[in-house]
Amino acid sequence: MFPTIERLTASAYTVPTDEPESDGTLAWDSTTIVVVEARAGGQTGLGYTYTHPSAAGLINSTLADVVTGLGAGDIGAAWQAVVHAARNLGRPGLASAALSAIDVALWDLKARLLGVPLTALLPAFRESVPVYGSGGFTSYSLPTLERQLAGWVADGMTQVKMKVGRDPDQDEDRVRAARAAIGDADLFVDANGAWSRKQALRWADVLAACGVTWLEEPVSSDDLDGLRLLRDRAPAGMDVAAGEYGYDLMYFRRMLDAGAVDCLQADVTRCGGITGFLAVAALCDAHTIDLSAHTAPSVSAHASTGVWHLRHLEYFHDHVRLEHMLFDGALSARDGHLHPDPSRPGLGLQLKTTQAEQFRVA
Q: Which active-site residues does the annotation give?
């Protein structure tokens, strides 16, 4: 028997980026993380999501109440209770991000109560998770772009990703510079839905000539027919990927049923936490399609050990930096992989409360 959940609270922290960043459709200069702490039996579970600070208010005012008092081992019951409570709030978006952070905190709490790493609660498909370096923002100068991507390759990564789509007059030169900087490593690009279908078809040929093997969101991820068109007509050796904005299982089912992607993406901090992420992984298994974990590496690495058809995990610059700033035990890539620490219970993370307080916004 597990003890009951005594308390669940959320806080939000906004951390400035190390320099201004942009992609094909968005520009930003800070990243907000909403952290959930769940208390039971003398242990505190930690979860988080990357979203607007208002998600913390939603959790504290509404969602925490439906979880408090449940058994700390009843993660499915808690997940279902939050889904029901969020019905009239609008499940996709903020509510799903809040659900995800709560769910991760409860998985962490259960593992801590048992005194085991979180990976011990999941199917043991692997002990470590392959990663690709991700950043290459459109706001970067060419020297900064080259230095970042080449740095990841020097650290042992064989795959790196850059952003495109903001400035068509510059993109080909940027991609060629990236290719020269990384040698034989695989080059991925992410357009973040910046192109029309015809533009994306033209760019697929240009990118293939530069050795690009991964084309992410060439058109809007809501344009399933457009993604399928790109998947069917992209040059051989180039995979089309999307899915990071999925908040519920039906979103991923529609994308897979449409044959829209060669590799599906899912974000554990958006899609319903570890519970939701494993459900998405089961869909991928049923479709014999690989799953790629989107960002949040210090949580995604643990969740990804339980995925059968796993391709890789996105080692996203912003989240790597922020997680090391705010958490003791944040994971660092080694030889192109993340290795969850089997000696630390749960996720192995502890919030650096003094360091975090200066960034607190909710």
A: 163, 294
Architecture of domain 120-350: Alpha-Beta Barrel (3.20)
Residue ranges per structural domain of the chain: 7-116+352-357, 120-350
Over residues 225-275, the pLDDT tens digits come to 999 999 999 999 999 999 999 999 999 999 999 999 999 999 999 999 999
Quick check: 355 and 326 in contact, CB under 8 A?
Answer: yes
pTM above 0.90, yes or no: yes
26-53 residue pLDDT tens? 999 999 999 999 999 999 999 999 999 9
Distances from the Cα of 185 to the Cαs of 50, 57, 141, 213, 258, in angstroms?
29, 43, 21, 10, 31
Identify each DSSP E strand in 72-216 by its residue range. Answer: 129-134, 159-163, 186-190, 212-216
What CATH number labels 7-116+352-357? 3.30.390.10
